[in-house]
């Protein structure tokens, strides 16, 4: 298991995955605990029992609640799949949370308008970036059909997707990143790659089998003036 992280500021509380009991009062099983001297302590024994839990999700509320709370703690839980602790929320004073909620309600309309403006701005940025990505595909692969170039660019550049178009290299429109997006699209669309995977062929072997077909399409698309290539 990963080591318990240190909070960047303030205290740290843990949502345990296993049944744990307080080393001091023997109470439990604990839903939240604090590690002191390498042993679990309940919130009461750690002098945090008067705090309330605020789940993650509302950034403004969390920030305001922590700013107004004289005592607070970050709450984390271990993610077995990722092999790391992940933030779940914070513990704050109840009065501070109430004040933060009141402030958020007071300016909710203004924050909603700001979010709407930000969404419009991001959408416009996405349209421009996708168009630039498609243009770069057409520059590197002049015979790639325009519709395919636009489709590949749209798929690769979805915000928050983690795809190659949103990597640092993709945002910089590097030739390697753009080519990787084209290769991935050809692999899934123009070859039996997906069927091979579904039939149980290991990924490496499936890629080896369809590599000649991918290369054939890429070579054809690199020849200017030939958008009618059949694949």
From TrEMBL:
Please state every residue range assigned to the domain named DUF2293: 136-222
Q: Which domain of life is it from?
A: Bacteria
What is the protein named?
DUF2293 domain-containing protein
Pfam families (alphabetical): DUF2293 (PF10056)
């Amino acid at each position: 298991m990963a080591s318990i992280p240190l909070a960047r500021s303030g205290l740290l509380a843990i949502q345990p995955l296993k049944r744990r009991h307080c080393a001091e009062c023997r109470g439990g099983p604990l839903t939240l605990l604090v590690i002191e001297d390498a042993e679990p302590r309940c919130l009461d024994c750690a002098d945090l029992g008067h705090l309330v839990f605020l789940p993650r999700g509302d950034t403004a509320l969390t920030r305001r609640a922590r700013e107004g709370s004289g005592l607070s703690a970050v709450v984390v839980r271990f993610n077995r799949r990722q092999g790391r602790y992940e933030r779940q929320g914070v513990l704050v004073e109840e009065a501070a949370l109430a004040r933060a909620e009141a402030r958020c309600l007071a300016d909710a309309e203004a924050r909603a308008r700001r979010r709407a403006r930000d969404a419009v701005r991001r959408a416009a940025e996405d349209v421009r970036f996708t168009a630039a990505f498609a243009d770069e595909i057409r520059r590197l692969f002049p015979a790639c059909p325009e519709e395919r170039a636009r489709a590949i660019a749209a798929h690769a550049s979805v915000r928050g997707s983690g795809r190659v178009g949103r990597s640092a290299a993709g945002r910089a429109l590097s030739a390697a990143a753009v080519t990787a997006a084209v290769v991935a699209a050809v692999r899934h669309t123009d070859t039996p790659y997906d069927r091979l995977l579904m039939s149980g062929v290991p990924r490496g072997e499936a890629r080896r089998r369809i590599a000649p077909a991918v290369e054939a399409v890429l070579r054809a698309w690199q020849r200017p003036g030939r958008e009618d290539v059949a694949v």
